[in-house]
Amino acid sequence: MNNLQHDLSTLEARLISDEHGRVTAHYQDCSISSVFQPIFSLSHRRPVGYEALSRISREGSGVLAPSAFFRQSRPESDNVLVDRLCRALHMRNFAGCQDSAWIFLNVNPLVTVLGKNYGSFFREMLESNHIVPGQVVVEILENGIYDETILSAAVDYYKNLGCLVALDDFGAAHSNFDRIWNLQPDIVKFDRSIVQQAESSRKVRKALPNLVSLIQELGCLTLMESVETEQQALIAMDANVDLVQGYYFGYPSEYLVDADYRSDIMLQLTHKHAGFAADVRRRNQLRIEAPQVEFGRVLQHLKLGSVRIEQACARLLEMDNVMRVYCLDEYGDQIGENIGNEQTLGRADPRFAPLAAARDANWARCNYFRSAMLSPGVIQTTRPYRSLTDKGQCITLSALIYTPAGKRVVCLDVDWSKGLEP
Fold first, then answer.
1. Could you give the C-alpha distances from 398 to 9, 338, 386, 415, in angstroms and in order?
2. Is 180 helix (H, G, I), strand (E, B) or coil?
3. Which residues contact 375 (CB under 8 A, 6 or more apart)?
4. H or E element: which one contains 66?
5. Among the listed residues 172, 174, 171, 142, the one whose alpha carbon sits nearest the alpha carbon of residue 155
6. For 62, phi and psi rounded to 5 degrees?
7. Could you tell me the domains of the chain?
8. Arithmetic mean of pLDDT, 121-132
9. E-strand spans in 120-240?
10. Burial environment of residue 139 by CB neighbours within 10 A (0 to 12, 13 to 18, 19 or more)
């Protein structure tokens, strides 16, 4: 057992209050102060939490970057001291002006595990400041921690106290989904690189809503950090992110903001996103309008059984963005091969030749089959997805119809790689 004690009582001497009630901490020749950056719920359009951040000044040399301060090599005892000192400082300042919002505290999981050697601290800190554990979101700083046992022990400790746990910097360095389903955090914070890549890449921007949805399906709230522009805010909103944080919504400050802070900006964002989404839907509908109308005529012919499917589809297959037509039975089994034209066949990627022949393939698991079976006679439209039979993105129009030969789900794949929306 280490003889050094860094429990709450021994840290009190390092906390100094000024005439305004603000508290600073002192470590060696450095002075540490607190600032709080608001975290907004996009749905509630108001701040629901604050991340506590440290500001460091060194005697005789001015401001010191927090990253440089925390990266300094220190003995184990001093690492525990600095980590606890910052948390005690932030909690004291937050308690002086707090409402019912969350406080997000950055925690080094290695320090959490080692902390048992330096006296009890965290629970006593909460009780001393009259803050319930459920109001605290512990941000696990996973960078540099490769031992899953350490991470898991840290997460379990704070969850057992009743705190929420956020996994920070998802999408950076060695972050992966293993840590989400193994640690089961309450909140996943996207690394700043995610929104930056989404802003510069249409592919990333299109994939982001699915990534967000997947993490939400795993039981986590999603938080997009480092949102600095209106465009990035709209990207986060379009991806259905739950929470946002960044300079666009609010700079770190010594004080908490009012409940209606930035309400004008939030309202503008809501209206702009509604217009943006409506415009995207309109332009996307225009892209499939002509094939959809012709597809409706094909379905009428097939219902009557007056012509063969190849004849019924002749005009449809002349359209430049039409890839293929195929027919499924009521069990999802494909009847015959895909029906295309010479232009479609000419675009086929020979590397995917093993997947080209689709006769007797079963597509019952696909959304376009399921949705068609649930709404007979109504043309269904999927989201864009990667086609299995070639390298292109497509959307599928499908409809369940009753033909002289029985129930048929007729499917039309439209090339979505052309004219991607911005």
1. 69, 14, 17, 15
2. helix
3. 400
4. helix 66-71
5. 142
6. 80, -150
7. 8-261 (3.20.20.450), 286-415 (3.30.450.20)
8. 92
9. 136-140, 164-170, 187-190, 221-224
10. buried
Specify whether the CB–CB gap between 124 and 8 falls below 8 A.
yes
Q: Is the pLDDT of residue 139 over 70?
A: yes
The 10s digit of each residue's pLDDT in 323-332 is 999 999 999 9
Average pLDDT, the chain: 89
Q: Position of tokens 């696990």?
A: 140
List the one residue out of 167, 170, 214, 158 whose CA is nearest residue 186.
167
Distances in Å between the Cα of 390 and the Cα atoms of 256, 367, 368 are 53, 18, 18
Instruction: Give the pLDDT band of residue 1 (cuts 50, 70, 90).
Output: very low
Q: Which residues contact 261 (CB under 8 A, 6 or more apart)?
A: 38, 46, 47, 250
Contact of 153 with 202, CB cutoff 8 Å: no
The one-letter code for the residue type at 353 is A
DSSP string, 282-307: HHHHHHHHHHHHHHHHHHHHHHHT-S
Q: Give the count of beta carbons closer than 10 Å to the beta carbon of residue 223.
A: 28
Q: How far apart are CA 43 and CA 232, in angstroms?
A: 16
